[in-house]
Model the fold of this input.
Amino acid sequence: MKETVIHLDNVWKTYKMGEFEVNALRGLNLEVKKGELLAIMGPSGSGKSTAVNMVGALDMPTRGKILLEGHDISKLSESDLAQIRGKKIGFIFQQFNLINTLTALENIALPMVFQNIVKEERLQRAKYLLEMVGLSDRMHHKPTELSGGQQQRVAIARALSNNPEVVLADEPTGNLDSKTGETVISFLQNLNRKEGKTIILVTHDANVAHHADRIEFLKDGAIVKSKKNMKGG
Amino acid sequence: MAILDFFSYSIENLRHRKLRSWLTMIGIFIGIAAVVALIGLGEGLRGAITGQFGFLGPDVLAVQASGLNFAGPPGQAVVNPLTKDLTEKIKSIPGVDIAVNRYIETGAFEFNDIQDIVFAWNVPENKERSKFEKMLNLKVSQGRLLKDGDKFKVVLGNSFTDEDRFGKPIQVGNNIIFEGKQFEVVGILEKKGSFIFDTAVIMNEDVLISEFKDDDSVNAIAIKVNDLKSIGNVKRNVEELLRKERGVKEGEEDFTVQSPESALESLDDVLFGVQLFISIIAFISLVVGGIGITNTMYTAVLERTKEIGIMKSIGARNSSIFTLFFMESGFLGFVGGLIGVAIGVALANLFAFAGRQALGSDLIKADVSLALVFGSLLFSVIVGLIAGTVPAYHASKKNPVDALRFAK
Done:
């Protein structure tokens, strides 16, 4: 039995909208095993993004526990959470979310800056990652000078810069055409198989989700169905 | 995040918003330029005046008759001038080392068929000579100083060696004419930087009196005290003596007994007042500049909300975000200050140059000290940092989820 990396235990998230309260998550239970490629599917408004924010230590639950490698992170300070995000989790967003004033290389090196890694080492690793995503020749280009697919590959490289335990991809193909999307997904698959990274993929696209080992279906803030993919793509 | 990383990241961000950064910095550098230029000019003026009159030590008192005193050497054209016999009486006051008659005579000077109006002053004779020379720190660059019995011999200030003044430099051994009398030049003083020495014709006291004076009046009496501690007492005793001799009551004196330093101090007070006033105005302009920085930083925080969210999601702590914006703001102040100092120095020198041209006086100089430069820079950085504190704090406290959702 593989060890559990992330465990969401009866997690509730309630937003106050004026006088109303909206429950984005209603007692969500989710376990993610080390080295797993997990897809979370669901229609819009089902709480996917909220769930991924919880898993990524970006947001704190109103109720319930989030255990990362067995430690409850739901009570940690913002500063400690930032450290956890920087070291243990790599984010990939639908909008790529690169910093436009920085070059591809600098974007990839930025998470290492926040971990106080020396410049030489940062650049060396950033170059290695750029090479891995096949963009060595775009090193000094700014995001606006890159195509969507290239930007997402830079974002993947950035997510890997601190060699995190878990990679969280929130609709990573949402802004890409299907062919480029395929390339991105196969990157993630390779990461999972060859590097043994735990990958959590949030998508509403069944074609994307079927690459995962397991699919969890989310509706109204809770898991409604689980499906194991034996072939895994 | 190392300080150097913050630094390069901040600079990159400011470069990215060039126009706004420049506009913001104008607010700072106008204030700093004004402070540097005006204080620099004031200091220059103070330095120049001190240089002209501040050659006497703190242990010296100058006695002058006051009242009417039109243009011309001090102590001339007054109603009731000082007289030689007073000097002798002052000498007997305890604590007085020497008391010397000071004669100042303006007159026509001729050399190489070129005429100019200059002034001559005296050196006392006998045992007072060496003490007086020491008091004024008189030294020659050519020839020798005067000695007893030097009739029709003069020592000249250094400016007489300027080639363009009399067609050719005056040298030791040359003959010159002062007020129709011929004198031999026996020495040239070292350059002092004060017109009192550099433009002076110096002659022995008995020569000056016998050739150019027809009464007992003296322009001033210079007193050197034995001990600096007793200068207050000596001053009071001299004043009392003069009141008695001249028959005036306390508070109605027609003379002044002043140390050159105290005279400079009152000038200093005036200059200080002017500089304080300028500083207050500049301070207000810097506060306005600081508000400009705050405004710019708030805009930057708002614009870069998503960037803040991204940075937080990839591991930036609140403190990192704070430092990033804080440094950016400090940097705006620093660069603004740097430009301000540069403009200020240039303006001070330009004004001084224009002043010299217009008035023909070397007195107007700019003196921008390192303390003023670094003080101004430090102050502008502090203004920048203070102005950036609140925006940087707001940036650091942004919720990462909301920030990421923020659309430009």
In short: Chain B touches chain A at residues 1-2, 5, 12-13, 16, 306-307, 309-320, 400-401, 404 (CB under 8 Å).
